[in-house]
Amino acid sequence: MKKQPNFLCNRTGVSPVIGVILMVAITVIMAAIVAGFVFGVIQTPQATPTASITISNIVPENKNEHNGTVTLLHQGGDDLNTSNTKVIITDLEDGDTWTFNQLQDLNKDGVFSAGERIKYGVLPLNDFADSKTINNGDGGITEGHKIEVRVIDSVSGGVISVQEKKA
């Protein structure tokens, strides 16, 4: 019987070579990731603020006085920049949606902080100076309908709060 060449059976030099190749590959990958962050190719995502926002009150439409209001209460967490925070109010029963591209800034400090309230509503002209109209008079908040309020951070695109409550 013919003897096989010795180089096929002798594997003593394979392990160190594979180890070196793997270490070089890992080093190159790590260098590419670091370079991506340094040169701005890879951006870290913007963190969404965390805050506890609740619906403190919903007043349904009343033909004589107003077409309904929604009052939001900031119960705690991060202060929200009013110009970077969006509010979407939806009547889940009939699908009406009202979008505000920024929070009201009642204190004129640019911040919605813990303990503060913001009122949104469809009101007669000059009824309340601290409320914001949520539609063009095509209807209001109907009693018994479930209302959803979404508070969204415009910078990160993340949802800060989603609340539902019956009017």
From TrEMBL:
Record's keyword annotation contains Membrane: yes
Keywords: Membrane, Transmembrane, Transmembrane helix
Annotated InterPro entries: Flagellin/pilin_N_arc, Pilin_N_archaeal
Annotated transmembrane regions: 20-42
Keyword rRNA-binding attributed: no
Residue ranges of domain Archaeal Type IV pilin N-terminal in the record: 13-90
Pfam family, one: Pilin_N
Name this protein carries in UniProt: Pilin/Flagellin PilA family
Organism: Methanohalarchaeum thermophilum
